[in-house]
C-alpha cells in the first residue's frame, strides 16, 4: 500500500501544485498583456475579444477541476486508511496519517480552485472593461 501513499503524495499533490503554477503563470502573463494593451490597435471587436480571452479557458478549467482532483486524493487516502485498518492491527498513528493525507488533498484542491477563480474573475473583469473602452472609441 506504500505505492498508493506515494501516488497520493506525489501524484495528486504534484498535479495540484502544477495546476496552481500554471494558473499563476497564465494570470501573470495576462496581466502583463493587459497592461501593454492598446485597444485602438484592433480593427474589430471580435479580434480584440479573442486576444483578451486567450488563456481564460485554461484558468477556468483549472478552477472547475481542482476540487475534483483534491477529492480524488481524498478517496484514495480513505481507501488507504481502510486498507491499513484491515491488514494490520489498528495503529492509531497510521490511521491518523492517512486521514491527514486525505484532508490535505481536499484542502489543497480547494485552495487551487479558489485562487484560480479569483484570477479568472479579475481577468474577465479586465476583458469587459477593455471591450467597453473599445465600444466607446468607435
TrEMBL record:
Per UniProt, the keywords (alphabetical) are: Cell membrane, Membrane, Protein transport, Transmembrane, Transmembrane helix, Transport
Q: GO terms for biological process?
A: protein import
Q: Which organism is it from?
A: Sulfurospirillum halorespirans DSM 13726
Coiled-coil boundaries: none
Residues spanning the membrane: 7-28, 66-83, 95-119
PROSITE patterns attached to this UniProt entry: PROKAR_LIPOPROTEIN
Q: Name one GO cellular component term.
A: plasma membrane
Q: How does it sit in the membrane?
A: Multi-pass membrane protein
Q: Provide the family line.
A: Belongs to the exbB/tolQ family.
Q: Where in the cell is it found?
A: Cell inner membrane; Membrane
Residues in MotA/TolQ/ExbB proton channel domain copies: 32-134
Q: What is this protein called?
A: TolQ proton channel family protein
Spell out the InterPro entries in the cross-references: ExbB/TolQ_transport, MotA_ExbB_proton_chnl
Q: Which domain of life is it from?
A: Bacteria
Amino acid at each position: 500500500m506504500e505505492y498508493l501513499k506515494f501516488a497520493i503524495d506525489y501524484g495528486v499533490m504534484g498535479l495540484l501544485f502544477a495546476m496552481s503554477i500554471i494558473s499563476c503563470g497564465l494570470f501573470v502573463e495576462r496581466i502583463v498583456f493587459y497592461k501593454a494593451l492598446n485597444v485602438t490597435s484592433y480593427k474589430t471587436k471580435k479580434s480584440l475579444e479573442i486576444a483578451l480571452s486567450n488563456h481564460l479557458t485554461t484558468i477556468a478549467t483549472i478552477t472547475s477541476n481542482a476540487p475534483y482532483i483534491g477529492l480524488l486524493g481524498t478517496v484514495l487516502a480513505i481507501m488507504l486508511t481502510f486498507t491499513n485498518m484491515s491488514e494490520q492491527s489498528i495503529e492509531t498513528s497510521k490511521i491518523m496519517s492517512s486521514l491527514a493525507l486525505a484532508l490535505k488533498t481536499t484542502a489543497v484542491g480547494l485552495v487551487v480552485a479558489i485562487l484560480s477563480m479569483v484570477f479568472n474573475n479579475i481577468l474577465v473583469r479586465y476583458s469587459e472593461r477593455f471591450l467597453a473602452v473599445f465600444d466607446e472609441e468607435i
